Amino acid sequence: MVHALEIIHSLLEPAGILVDIHPSSDPPPIEVRLGHRYDLAGWLKETDDYIEYTQADQAIEAVLRRGLFALQQKGTFTFNTYAPSLAELREHLAETWQDALIDDQVAGRVEQLLQSPEIDKEVVLREVVQISRLRSLRLGKTGRA
Amino acid sequence: MDDDLRESEVVMKKLRIDPENSEAAALAEFAGNFKGKRVLEVGCGNGRVTKLFAPMAAFVHAIDPDQQDILAAQADLPPQLRHKIRFEATSIEALAVESPFEAVLMSWSL
Known about the structure:
A: elongated; B: 4 helices
């Protein structure tokens, strides 16, 4: 990941801007909405336990320390996916996020909550996403900015 | 059953992705200065994020190593954006460019 950021640095004009969007390394909660009420069913798992997102954080910290970039702004937003059923959430994840896994315990809790007589109900996946803006710094002869 | 309830049930049957537009709002805040710039997007996938920021950029070169995603992105591109976006199936390591970019967006790809 550091290598990719080094390549990007080489592709940017001096003082060019890099915006990075990547998910937080905290597992996203899966909830069931019943009308205005939200019940937590559990957390989404990933086959590699979100290690890649921690590595992405570390890669950004590494290029900041090396003076390739300067951090201008950092924040988070919540990216919500609403599915009418567990099966449709799983189908969506299979298409867009192949490492994601809803284990049997969480799936059972979701199905149990969806048995509510409430008409207005859906499954909600809440992903916390990090967004950062960095400015490219020109390297001096020493390799430092 | 009245019409309103029937209509709400139809809406409930659809998958909704970021209906609050949180990602678009974050991009507007963090990538607002992409306006008028030449932008490289790394990991564009099916072009979902590309369509959010491309209207303000001067030109977008959007890359992803997945050929199927690139084909989907090209097929789903609105006509008004076709003149300013170039999709290419390649990796950042293999990308060949003639001149540097003013901005880069890494879309869920680092």
